[in-house]
């Protein structure tokens, strides 16, 4: 039997209602702003690291207008070590547009969300589904893996294809909007906790009897090799070390303070230049460096 929307609804929604993690951005009192912040923070960052920072942000900036009124330096400090700090500046810019053009309320439809600065296809659909209960396919790495296995019998998802991925997930969503939104969350949860990349817990999977991959004998993934992400020694690590220095002081610092964080001068200077280009660091008239707007 092939996995269909009816089968998925009967099993996955029951499973999700019984086992879903109690995450604060899933609670009924969490509005679109809280969901938007969570989705930006959760990109390539584990839930355990996000949750305490998410609470701090919502307490400090409970509405988009509150974040928009903050300085970029304040936003970058509050972002801390979540990584990929450009996400913080994009959220800051989006908050300003939401405050000025949308009555300080995060929009509820995909097209309007996509028009916000820094909001991509995944984030727009995630906010529409999880904050407003809209029926729209929400596709992340976990969902793509579940669909690849359960529907197509492949060990993992191949290269991303927006049209195909959206159609695959759309076909599994029930017609009812609220149930479809919950299904999107359930598919994501299944991929994150059960149908994992390296050690899938098939015995705990609610749709194991209808999984094409299991029925095929769990063939190994034979698609294009996936790039292995590393951190140690990368420009990303060096950029983080440079930002750590600036987050730790309220005053611009001389370049000598930055030079000590990494002994490879060429890589260090390249990373500093990239931070300046990205608007994450600014240089003062006397040649020192600071977070944006803090001099």
Automatic annotation (TrEMBL):
<keyword id="KW-0234">DNA repair</keyword>
<dbReference type="InterPro" id="IPR003265">
    <property type="entry name" value="HhH-GPD_domain"/>
</dbReference>
<keyword id="KW-0227">DNA damage</keyword>
<protein>
    <recommendedName>
        <fullName>Adenine DNA glycosylase</fullName>
        <ecNumber>3.2.2.31</ecNumber>
    </recommendedName>
</protein>
<dbReference type="InterPro" id="IPR011257">
    <property type="entry name" value="DNA_glycosylase"/>
</dbReference>
<dbReference type="GO" id="GO:0006284">
    <property type="term" value="P:base-excision repair"/>
</dbReference>
<dbReference type="Pfam" id="PF00633">
    <property type="entry name" value="HHH"/>
</dbReference>
<keyword id="KW-0411">Iron-sulfur</keyword>
<comment type="similarity">
    <text>Belongs to the Nth/MutY family.</text>
</comment>
<dbReference type="GO" id="GO:0000701">
    <property type="term" value="F:purine-specific mismatch base pair DNA N-glycosylase activity"/>
</dbReference>
<keyword id="KW-0408">Iron</keyword>
<dbReference type="GO" id="GO:0006298">
    <property type="term" value="P:mismatch repair"/>
</dbReference>
<keyword id="KW-0378">Hydrolase</keyword>
<dbReference type="Pfam" id="PF00730">
    <property type="entry name" value="HhH-GPD"/>
</dbReference>
<dbReference type="GO" id="GO:0035485">
    <property type="term" value="F:adenine/guanine mispair binding"/>
</dbReference>
<dbReference type="GO" id="GO:0034039">
    <property type="term" value="F:8-oxo-7,8-dihydroguanine DNA N-glycosylase activity"/>
</dbReference>
<dbReference type="InterPro" id="IPR000445">
    <property type="entry name" value="HhH_motif"/>
</dbReference>
<dbReference type="InterPro" id="IPR044298">
    <property type="entry name" value="MIG/MutY"/>
</dbReference>
<keyword id="KW-0479">Metal-binding</keyword>
<keyword id="KW-0004">4Fe-4S</keyword>
<dbReference type="InterPro" id="IPR023170">
    <property type="entry name" value="HhH_base_excis_C"/>
</dbReference>
<keyword id="KW-0326">Glycosidase</keyword>
<dbReference type="GO" id="GO:0051539">
    <property type="term" value="F:4 iron, 4 sulfur cluster binding"/>
</dbReference>
<feature type="domain" description="HhH-GPD">
    <location>
        <begin position="41"/>
        <end position="193"/>
    </location>
</feature>
<dbReference type="GO" id="GO:0046872">
    <property type="term" value="F:metal ion binding"/>
</dbReference>
<dbReference type="GO" id="GO:0032357">
    <property type="term" value="F:oxidized purine DNA binding"/>
</dbReference>
């Amino acid at each position: 039997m092939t996995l269909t929307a009816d089968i998925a609804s009967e099993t996955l929604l029951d499973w999700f209602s019984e086992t879903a993690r109690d995450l604060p951005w899933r609670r009924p009192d969490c509005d679109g702003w809280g969901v938007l912040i969570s989705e930006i923070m959760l990109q390539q960052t584990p839930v355990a690291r996000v949750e305490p920072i998410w609470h701090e942000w919502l307490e400090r900036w409970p509405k988009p207008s509150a974040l928009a009124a903050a300085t970029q330096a304040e936003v970058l400090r509050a972002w801390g070590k979540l990584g990929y700090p450009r996400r913080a500046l994009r959220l800051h810019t989006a908050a300003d547009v939401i405050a000025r053009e949308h009555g300080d309320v995060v929009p509820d439809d995909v097209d309007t969300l996509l028009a916000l600065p820094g909001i991509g296809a995944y984030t727009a659909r995630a906010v529409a589904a999880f904050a407003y209960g809209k029926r729209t396919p929400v596709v992340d790495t976990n969902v793509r893996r579940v669909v690849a296995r359960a529907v197509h019998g492949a060990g993992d998802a191949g290269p991303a294809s927006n049209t195909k991925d959206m159609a695959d997930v759309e076909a599994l969503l029930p017609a009812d909007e609220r149930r479809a939104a919950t299904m999107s969350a359930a598919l994501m949860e299944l991929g994150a906790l059960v149908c994992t990349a390296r050690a899938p817990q098939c015995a705990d999977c609610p749709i194991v009897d209808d999984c094409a991959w299991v029925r095929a004998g769990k063939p190994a993934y034979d698609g294009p090799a996936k790039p292995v992400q590393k951190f140690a020694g990368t420009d990303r690590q060096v950029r983080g070390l440079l930002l750590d220095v600036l987050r730790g002081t309220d005053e611009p610092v001389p370049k000598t303070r930055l030079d000590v964080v990494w002994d490879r001068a060429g890589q260090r200077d390249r990373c500093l230049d990239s931070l300046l280009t990205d608007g994450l660091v600014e240089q003062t008239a006397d040649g020192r460096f600071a977070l944006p707007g803090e001099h």
